[in-house]
Fold this protein.
Amino acid sequence: MFELKHLFFILIALTWFEDATIFNHNLIISYGLIITTIWLILNLKKIIQKEITFTKPGFYLISGLLFLLAWSTLSLNWSEITDICKERVFNITAVIGLTIILLDQFRRENDWITTYKILVTAGLVSSFLVIEQAFSGVYRPVGYISPDPNFTAMRIITLVPLTYYWAKSSENTLRLLLTVSILIPFLAIISTGSRAGISVLLIISLIIIFQELKSNDTKKMLITFLVMLGIGALLLSTIIHDPLQPGITRFENLVDTIKGDISPDGSIQERYNLLIGGIRMFFDHPILGVGLGDFRVLSMDYGAGWDDEAHNTYLEIATELGIIGIGIFLGLISYILIKYKKLEKTYSNNPLQTFITGCKIAYISILINFLFLTAFSDRRFYILMAFAVAMLGREQLSIKGFINHIKELWKKNVPSPNSQ
């Protein structure tokens, strides 16, 4: 039977094709707005009457996200309003709306396993198209395969743990097929020409290996993973070396720069200028920040070669929204990491634990990538947030029930003046 959630399954699949390959970004946004409007119409009465329900962890996540949106919007009062500001507000609102709807629509374990599998399947198709572009020479005037190599690489990196742990939970033919498929994101990341992407790929591979070494029943799967990485390295050095050469060369230049053998190129020098300038900008406006979207406006005043974003999500949020904004953001991240840890313990003897571990490492990969690009409105970041809280707790609370819960916590932990 067809349900509204199936339309959101399609939206999740389409998010892999934003800018990275062949789909128009605006078409995907329009589709998302249409089905979100349908959801609002169907749930408007429950929302007005405060009867729509979520789990307690879901309400905490939604509250944190709404605090972030409220502070971001408030910061417009002291920022220079530009198109970037408007785009930021729209993007933050959109991803928060997506998170809320996912928590409402996907309430069963099967829904989230299906979401997981859609993420992997659509992501592998998108990654394959990125590789195909590397061979066809599309978007390669400066050695890149995509309009923004770091964004594309960040999206693809999440596939490595997601694909590996789906393979681990599968059997026979499907396990073999998925394990071999790990080569697709591996090669696609290198084809983007993103040095940050290749670096994070190596880190995430080491995290997977470390995670598996702690388990006694996965040696065969771990060996297979290492074999796949070896085959990937062999392919890079022989059969498909030339089409992926730009990415390999850029990474080699990064290594040589770190070793001190060559001087930093323009990209590395600009990132350094942005980092130093961003730190100075933060200390000039530590409490409130410069306002949403204004890092780019002020970047040249702080040493950047041109008006540019920070290329560091944490730094950009800290400079634009101050201590309050970065505090809310880091609080949300910490909350989700704690929930993933709790989920792994809760499902320690359940086949679902494998999927949870895959999501946790994919989430960590995004957090590491945030050090190299400004991407706090990336859809996968919020989908993985929703996954973490949706699986915890089965008790559903209405908005009224959650408000009463907060009141009870307040009374319990904050003594009244009369009690003193």
